[in-house]
């Protein structure tokens, strides 16, 4: 009986370790993806801002500055929109990952409950003999 319990416990811990490793892998993949989204957004914003600043530095008269003001506002607006879109994408990725992690935890809990109920049933059956 003790040997059977040790085998079941060992199988359960191996299963738990496998699920924990999968959860860690999913969390890491999510973090990498979120970092990539944010990095691409930062790169686009830096490129747009740098390009605008290059034009601003080359401006020589008041008329040039007057035409650059609306362009500067558009660059700022575009940058803000990219940041907002990246934030929404990151939120969506986090939500999807959370759902998957929740399903993994739920399935692990259900499997552990089934195993525990089966073990209790076997012990109860063995003690009735």
UniProtKB/TrEMBL annotation:
It comes from the Bacteria. Residues 7-109 form the Phasin domain. This is Phasin family protein. InterPro entries: Phasin. Pfam families: Phasin_2.
């Amino acid at each position: 009986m003790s040997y059977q319990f040790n085998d079941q416990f060992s199988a359960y811990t191996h299963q738990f370790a496998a699920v924990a490793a999968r959860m860690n892998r999913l969390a890491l993949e999510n973090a990498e993806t979120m970092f990539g989204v944010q990095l691409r957004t930062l790169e686009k914003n830096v490129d747009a801002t740098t390009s605008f600043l290059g034009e601003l530095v080359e401006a020589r008269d008041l008329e040039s500055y007057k035409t650059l003001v609306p362009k500067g506002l558009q660059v700022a607006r575009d940058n803000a929109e990219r940041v907002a879109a990246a934030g929404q994408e990151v939120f969506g990725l986090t939500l999807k990952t959370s759902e998957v992690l929740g399903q993994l935890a739920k399935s692990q809990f259900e499997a552990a409950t089934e195993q525990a109920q089966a073990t209790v049933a076997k012990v109860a059956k063995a003690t009735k003999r």
